Amino acid sequence: YIWEENGHIVGNASLVPFRHKGHRLYLIANVAVHPDHRRKGIARALTERAMQHARERKVDDIWLHVREDNLEAIRLYTSLGFVERARRTNWQAATDSHLNYLDADIAITKRNPRFWATQLHWLSRLYPDELGWHIHWNFNSLKPGLWTWLYLIFIDMNIRQWAAVQRDTLLSTLSWIPTGRGESLFAAIGDESDPEALTQLLIHARRDLYLSYPSVTFEFPVSRFDNAIRDAGFKPLRTLIWMQATS
Description:
Elements (H helix, E strand, L loop, with lengths): L1 E4 L2 E13 L2 E11 L8 H15 L5 E6 L3 H9 L2 E13 L12 E4 L5 H11 L5 H4 L10 H9 L5 E7 L2 E8 L6 E7 L5 H14 L6 E7 L4 H6 L3 E11 L2
């Protein structure tokens, strides 16, 4: 949808359809208004029209993303009945083979198959199916076993997995899945795990991937582990709030 004044386009909004496990939904995206025409109710009108379009097609599951620092837009969407469902940050760091590890009693090892059940439980919490319609997370390639190994050979995919362990107790895992979409690191950690475990794993990834990739990125929910990610040398690119319409 576009908004015109005196023959000029001064605002626009897009509506993107998705289907997830047979369920239809829409994402409202690219809501923008020219700076000279803001505070005229144009963004509200465009958003309301996009919502109406979805409902005319019998779809009530409507989502949008908004930057955490865009307070005006957050207030607008809240007034239209959207509520926050998730808050996630994209992080990035350069690879560097000369990084030093933390001085911590945490060992970095290859992911042991016996850790899989715990790892999958943590991944399911941190990368929930509720949001899977947009990113299509699929962690089947991380599952240990002969069939997974044969499948990865067949598609020529080189996955790397590491674990942070303290006295034989799993604290965190980190997986590298070269998907081609950018966010290729997937961290899994328990609610009560030592944040330094995640820091150590991310430092290890930056070292280990140095010869193959100039930088590494990943997405992670805003949490008490944010400082641990920063301590590994990662910088936030943006934080998006995922909002869902409730009225």
